[in-house]
Amino acid sequence: xxxxxxxxxxxxxxxxxxxxxxxxxxxxxxxxxxxxxxxxxxxxxxxxxxxxxxxxxxxxxxxxxxxxxxxxxxxxxxxxxxxxxxxxxxxxxxxxxxxxxxxxxxxxxxxxxxxxxxxxxxxxxxxxxxxxxxxxxxxxxxxxxxxxxxxxxxxxxxxxxxxxxxxxxxxxxxxxxxxxxxxxxxxxxxxxxxxxxxxxxxxxxxxxxxxxxxxxxxxxxxxxxxxx
Length: 228
Hints:
alpha/beta; Maf protein; seven-stranded mixed sheet; 7 helices; disordered N terminus
């Protein structure tokens, strides 16, 4: 039976204060509510499409949190777990986080875990993505072996043992940008299943084959049994 007091506070309190209310008074959360430890709106929309509308997916901004999330481990698994644990510590609701690395064979697996900050610049997500792509293309100028892969690790944490889900896609780095969709390295990564970059695909097309889609497909399977 639904708690009438819980319903009342859900209607009158902003989202972050509502979750603080649940935590302070040790009231169980709705099992369909999931917090994604990210500020990236493009990524949140992709993931919302992947896991379906059965879950009330919230990002950090939805919770009123605009600060930085720590991400200083040297593995994708470490970063994903660090972010999920941090978000859970703030709000006490089931959280998940992901980390993705682009691994280029000719660069010894770089940029890898440092993919998001490869160029070492500060700015908006769009500015950093552009700088990262330009550095990558410069590093591969004149290089024949352009094989690469994306790996995504998802970590789910609800106060018990962390759970991990992995997805990967093989492909290559193009010699120049193609397409305007997606985000990150999408305009320069061409999966082997397609003759187009991720940035040239619709969201539905990308979500059928991407590394993130494969990791979240496994995560979605888990959610089907979570709390039951």
